[in-house]
Amino acid sequence: MTLDVDPPDPPELETIDPNEYDDAQVVDDTDYRREEIEEYLRDGAWDRAFEEWADRTDMDEATFAIVADLDLMERFDFFWDSYAERVGYHAPGLPEDWKHRDIHPDLDSWGTVSAINAGLTELGQEVCDVLKDEYIEWETEYEAPDDLPDFE
Whole-prediction pTM value? Predict the structure, then answer.
């Protein structure tokens, strides 16, 4: 399926500690390189990843309209995970209690909620892949501790 919509603006990345996400798997590191990643997103990585994702997503235009109305695209987070030498991300999603919270008038089924949450996760991974494959050339510099024994 192809989603025929224009790519939204890339998200503005805020200073958030990725370790505070419920699903965090990031080693404590303070240089998440968000400014550089945000620049790459504005320079085309976001549009390219969005278009590749839109070509194969199961999300339709009506479901994407809900995503746009709720400003979910603006809530993505991307950061450099130097320990794993990868771009990490946190995708926004809809909560389990969406029915009780009356989040959106067109949100009426678990199928739609699942399509949104899965679709946004897939988009996040696509953005990470495009960034790592086509934009980022960083390597983590490893410095050995000074107190290692001399084996000569």
Answer: 0.81
